[in-house]
């Protein structure tokens, strides 16, 4: 069988970065962040600080990506810096929750917004009504929305098994389309929308108490700011995904750093401008309590009327579809790399006749599709309220995921000291200050989340640590696949 092929150009790699980052988050997460901080200035600060973390992380990760341009990316960095156990735990968390759960979440967002255009796709139109799993607080169901989400995952998985160029075509077209659409939203909001009622003009920029929020001290406000960054960080996550496909990027020493820096800078600027458009046009209450948190839809409706909401739904459909393509394409490369090390199912470490890890793609696609089916069940005044299991899992894993990001950034120090002989075509600009800034902010956020949400953060750590016995069992029977590239 042929090895992985270096067929990704600089433009393709940048489209993976941008396309994997821009999903549904920018269109909805500002509502929760605005509720937490209670003022437009602090909302923009949350997005700005998240952008700072993203950029310092990308600048640092670019050195690792250029020095270790292999399949698996972050998994390889962690493995080489701290040993195979840490690399496995990252891959374990990625497969069980982080990547697969995000794919499921984005697929359901795709189906949800498609439902605005196609009413038959709805969360309440059940093909299989919710079936409670005993008294566990969980149920299984299949609505037309869930079915659409599931089929979209399987369709994109199949498309990516047909070859790298097939997946890249979907990625490039969808990414260009959604960047243009997001830019259009920004222009409409800043240049066309009526700003007289916007939060920027009608609310205190920095005093939440004046805007009706409960009065808090500066320390409490800063802690809330940290929690308000969770949504923006989630919306800006997945920038590391291009490193997973490092073995398939042409001239990786130049193109991987370029893709990371251009891609992340583009998204950070677009996100800040989009939030500026939100606070320019919508009142603070309109951002905080946008129906179903759909702030972008509320913005477009305020400017264009009901038709604007439909147009925005179409944009988000394209955005989420393209986002999932990037997540599916790149995520499978991690499990391929793990299988090559004997730490995942052996067949996942083999490429098909089209030079892609088809079995790894199938494992990921099936698991992500299955995650769309379980539901959480909580009592409500009108009967049971059904949530999504992957949403709960993602909430659990956020703090642990940030620990893995921190370990990746710290790996620059570890590997410069432990492997000085490795060629580094790119060295992080501003070293050591840039990675130190990332590590300090990351550590503060991990501590903040652990303090404010100890139950969810603790569950996330337990989910990761559950991989420890799995690692030792797998390690005992590991049979690495010899290198062919």
What would you say this structure looks like, in words?
It is built from 21 helices and 4 strands. With 485 residues, the protein is mostly helical. It has a 4-stranded antiparallel beta sheet. α3 packs antiparallel against α10 and α6 runs antiparallel to α16 (306-340). The chain is globular and about 65 Å long. 55% of the residues are buried. The model has no long low-confidence stretch (mean pLDDT 92).
CA radius of gyration is 22 Å
Task: Identify low-pLDDT runs.
Answer: none
Roughly what fraction of the amino acids lie in strands? 5-15%
* Count of all domains: 1
Please outline what is shown here.
The protein is built from 21 helices and four strands.
Please render the helix and strand layout as text.
Layout: H1 10-21, H2 25-28, H3 30-37, H4 40-67, H5 74-82, H6 84-117, E1 126-132, E2 138-143, H7 144-161, H8 164-192, H9 199-202, H10 218-228, H11 230-235, H12 241-244, H13 252-281, H14 284-288, H15 295-304, H16 306-340, H17 358-370, E3 374-380, E4 383-388, H18 389-418, H19 433-452, H20 454-465, H21 467-476
Antiparallel strand pairs: 1-2, 2-3, 3-4
Helix pairs in contact: 1-8, 1-13, 1-16, 3-4, 3-10, 4-13, 4-18, 4-19, 5-6, 5-18, 6-7, 6-16, 6-17, 6-18, 7-8, 7-16, 7-17, 8-13, 8-15, 8-16, 15-16, 16-17, 18-19, 18-20, 19-20
């Amino acid at each position: 069988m042929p090895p992985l092929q270096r067929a990704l150009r600089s433009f393709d790699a940048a489209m993976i970065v941008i396309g994997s980052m821009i999903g549904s988050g920018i269109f909805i997460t500002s509502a929760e962040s605005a509720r937490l901080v209670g003022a437009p200035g602090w909302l923009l600060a949350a997005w700005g600080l998240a952008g700072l973390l993203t950029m310092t992380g990308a600048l640092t990760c670019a050195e690792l990506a250029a020095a270790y341009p292999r399949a698996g990316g972050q998994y390889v960095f962690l493995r080489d810096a701290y040993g195979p156990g840490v690399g496995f735990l990252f891959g374990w968390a990625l497969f069980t929750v982080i990547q697969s759960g995000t794919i499921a979440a984005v697929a359901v967002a795709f189906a949800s917004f498609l439902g605005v255009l196609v009413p038959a796709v709805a969360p309440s139109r059940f093909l299989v009504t919710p079936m409670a799993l005993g008294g566990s607080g969980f149920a299984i169901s299949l609505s037309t929305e869930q079915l659409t989400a599931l089929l979209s995952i399987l369709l994109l998985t199949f498309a990516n098994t047909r070859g790298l160029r097939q997946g890249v075509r979907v990625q490039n077209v969808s990414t260009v389309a959604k960047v243009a659409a997001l830019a259009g939203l920004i222009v409409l909001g800043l240049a066309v929308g009526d700003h007289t009622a916007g939060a920027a003009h009608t609310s205190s920029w920095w005093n939440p108490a004046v805007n009706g929020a409960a009065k808090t001290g500066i320390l409490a406000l800063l802690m809330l700011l940290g929690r308000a960054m969770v949504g923006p960080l989630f919306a800006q996550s997945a920038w590391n995904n291009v490193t997973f496909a490092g073995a398939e990027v042409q001239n990786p020493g130049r193109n991987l750093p370029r893709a990371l820096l251009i891609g992340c800078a583009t998204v950070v600027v677009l996100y800040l401008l989009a939030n500026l458009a939100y606070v320019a046009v919508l009142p603070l209450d309109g951002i905080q309590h946008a129906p179903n948190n759909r702030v972008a839809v509320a913005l477009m409706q305020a400017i264009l009327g009901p038709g604007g909401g439909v147009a925005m739904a179409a944009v988000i459909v394209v955005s989420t579809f393209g986002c999932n393509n990037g997540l599916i394409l790149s995520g499978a490369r991690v499990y391929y790399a793990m299988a090559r090390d004997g730490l995942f199912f052996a067949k996942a470490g083999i490429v098909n006749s089209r030079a892609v890890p088809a079995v790894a793609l199938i494992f990921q696609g099936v698991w992500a599709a299955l995650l769309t089916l379980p539901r959480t069940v909580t009592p409500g005044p009108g009967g049971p309220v059904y949530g999504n299991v992957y949403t709960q899992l993602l909430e659990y894993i956020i703090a642990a995921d940030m620990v893995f990001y921190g370990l990746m950034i710290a790996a620059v120090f570890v590997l410069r000291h432990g492997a000085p002989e490795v060629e580094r075509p790119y060295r992080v600009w501003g070293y050591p200050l840039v990675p130190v800034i990332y590590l300090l902010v990351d550590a503060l956020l991990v501590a903040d989340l652990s303090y404010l949400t100890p139950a969810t953060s603790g569950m996330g750590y337990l989910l990761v640590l559950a991989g420890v016995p799995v690692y030792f069992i797998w390690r005992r029977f590991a049979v690495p696949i010899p290198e062919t590239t």
